[in-house]
Design brief:
This protein is α/β, with parallel strands linked by helices. 53% of the residues lie in helices and 11% in strands. The chain is built from 22 helices and 13 strands. The strands form four sheets. Strands 6-5-4-10-11 form a five-stranded parallel beta sheet, with helices on both faces. A three-stranded antiparallel beta sheet has the order 1-3-2. α1 packs antiparallel against α4 and α6 packs across α8 (198-214). The longest helix has 24 residues, at 243-266. The chain is globular. The two termini are 30 Å apart.
């Protein structure tokens, strides 16, 4: 909030003034951090070389020369850092004033004019979304929500792979696998899925088709080259513009995508745009990319006629320096179409963010090298995530080793309903179901996004459905508690005088709330969306301490100021929950 910005500027200005007197270069960079033991810290390590002194000594000299004005209460040197404490009155006053002025829009920036494209999910339309891939839509949707809070014009986009071999195999299976065969596959599954949802029904046709074409060693079924040729022929006809094949495969993919979209909507994931891979073939964009790469001095051809560009001069090492962009028969590859797709995204965006599985790191590097060969100046910003696995290993739709996201959401809501039923027998059945839905979804989204994207995540039911401690339901409960206080208070006169709130728990809560814009800014700069659940939990914990230690409704002359602080907390929590795609119920 503005008061915290002014405090930061005062700290930086004070340090720069002292550095100037010490003979430091005018362009010396001053970095700020938020430590656990102060309101702001400035490390002195980068000052060591130009000042020819140890960081600890520099910190001590600067601290002794700083005048504590402009909202600075104190500065303490510690192990090469300058730790600043803010005067609480302007911070508390600023938080209260912004909360009263902005309400639920607290922390929201004005329009930046920056167009940001966040491509996420983009899972092949060959089966329901399973938990192994759930990080992609949840991370992508959370990032898009945070970037909108920063004032950016955000487009959340799904790239539909309706061309690849897996999708064509699905389409072949829908046409050639009988209903009886699909039902037999379902009943033979470890966990038969009899739900009447289109993506769950069609996945069994896909599995049977895969076994028929590629064989099933466990059941003694050999691969069938004739069937594999049928699929290959469909792919060739597709790429050559055969409208009958294109329309049929597209229809099957659209049907499967309908089920996937229903799941995404069920967990509050919002998408603004869908781009179909087949459209990139149909409008000739993929062929134009192939022609441009063929004309490059880095272009080459394999013995069987496949075309590639050599990437050794672009930082790609080892055995993966050849970027193939056409097959031997001249048809384009996914990689070629991906280049055309990125050029399209660049034409309508200032920033392009790709949310990708960790197995796409090499592909992303190759893509950027190929873009450089093509003379494209823009580059995508990849956000890689590690896959979710089961204790017994990776999940696979094709092999049927999965926990579907639909199952997880249903189970989470069922468990939430049982908890609510135990605690709130005064609520109607409909109200209990409504709250259970919000709480169950919140538990799933929070549990998945709270772990850093680069960290491994092993799916365990007991963790995913944890409703206590560091969890989505805990945040929802604290928000509901703040709403309950406001309901009991009734009408009151908002009071933004920060000098009235001097208790350590009041000050601590206000300072945590004041950091909300900085959290959003850091997520904007780093794409580390796990910072949001960590921050929201910090807000909830600070509010619970405040509520436990400080009387609100019966506090005499301080009542209005404390109620204003409660209201600001409710606004920040509701906004943070919205960034996380989690509903903020007013009662639980």
């Amino acid at each position: 909030m503005e008061a915290m910005d002014r405090f930061r500027e005062a700290c930086v200005s004070a340090v720069r003034k002292v550095l100037d007197g010490m003979g430091a270069p005018a362009d010396i960079k001053i970095v700020t951090e938020v430590p656990d033991n102060a309101d702001l810290a400035i490390p002195c390590f980068t000052f060591s070389k130009p000042l020819k002194a140890a960081p600890v000594k520099i910190a001590e000299d600067i601290a002794s020369a700083i005048e504590c004005t402009g909202g600075i209460a104190s500065v303490v040197p510690l192990n090469g850092y300058l730790n600043f404490t803010a005067d609480p009155v302007p911070i508390v006053t600023g938080v209260l004033e912004e909360g009263v002025a902005k309400g639920r829009d607290i922390g929201r920036c004005p329009p930046s004019g920056v167009r940001v494209n966040v491509e996420h999910t983009s899972t092949n339309p060959t089966g329901p979304v399973h938990v192994g891939r759930a990080r992609n839509p949840i991370i992508g949707d959370t990032l898009a929500r945070c970037l909108r809070m920063r004032g950016h014009d955000v487009t959340a986009e799904y790239y539909v792979n309706d061309v690849g071999k897996q999708v064509v195999t699905l389409a072949w299976g829908v046409a050639n696998v009988t209903k009886e065969e699909a039902e037999a596959e379902m009943m033979a599954s470890e966990n038969p899925d009899e739900r009447d949802k289109v993506d769950h029904r069609l996945v069994y046709s896909y599995r049977v088709a895969t076994k028929k074409i590629h064989g099933d060693e466990a059941n003694g079924i050999p691969a069938d080259p004739a069937l594999e040729e049928q699929v290959a022929d469909m792919m060739r006809r597709f790429e050559n513009g055969d409208r009958e094949v294109i329309d049929y495969v597209g229809k099957v993919a659209q049907t499967m995508l309908g089920g996937i979209n229903a799941t995404l909507a069920d967990m509050n994931v919002t998408l603004d745009r869908y781009t179909w891979e087949s459209a990139i073939i149909a409008d000739g964009a993929a062929r134009r990319i192939a022609d441009r790469l063929s004309a490059s001095k880095y272009a080459g051809q394999t013995e069987d006629g496949a075309r590639y560009v050599e990437l050794k001069d672009f930082g790609i090492k080892g055995k993966n320096t050849k970027f193939t962009f056409t097959r031997a028969d001249g048809t384009t590859l996914y990689t070629t179409r991906d280049l055309a797709y990125h050029e399209d995204k660049f034409s309508r965006s200032d920033r392009v963010i790709d949310v990708l599985g960790e197995d796409q790191k090499l592909g992303s590097q190759q893509l950027c090298a190929a873009l450089e060969i093509m003379g494209e100046e823009k580059r995508p910003e990849p956000l890689f995530y590690s896959f979710v696995s089961l204790p017994q290993g990776r999940m696979s739709t094709r092999k049927g080793v999965v926990v579907y996201l639909d199952d997880l959401l249903e189970e989470a809501r069922a468990r939430a309903y049982e908890e609510i039923k135990k605690r709130r027998d005064d609520l109607s059945e409909d109200k209990m179901r409504e709250i259970a839905r919000a709480v169950g979804t919140g538990a799933v989204r929070y549990n998945i996004v709270r772990v850093g994207a680069d960290k491994q995540l092993v799916f365990k039911w007991e963790d995913a459905l944890n409703f206590d401690g560091n969890s989505g339901p805990y945040l929802q409960y604290v928000h509901a508690r703040a709403c309950s206080i406001m309901r009991k208070a009734g009408d009151f006169q908002r009071d933004c005088d920060g000098s009235k709130l001097t208790d350590e728990y009041e000050v601590k809560l206000a300072k945590v709330l004041a950091r909300y814009p900085d959290i959003l800014k850091t997520i904007d700069e780093t794409k580390r969306v796990n910072l949001m659940p960590a921050y929201a939990h910090e807000v909830a914990a600070a509010f619970n301490q405040f509520y436990t230690q400080v009387s609100v409704l019966n506090s005499g002359d301080l009542r209005n100021a404390r109620l204003t602080l409660v209201e600001c907390t409710r606004y920040v929590l509701a906004s943070a929950l919205d960034c996380l795609g989690i509903e903020a119920p007013e009662e639980m």
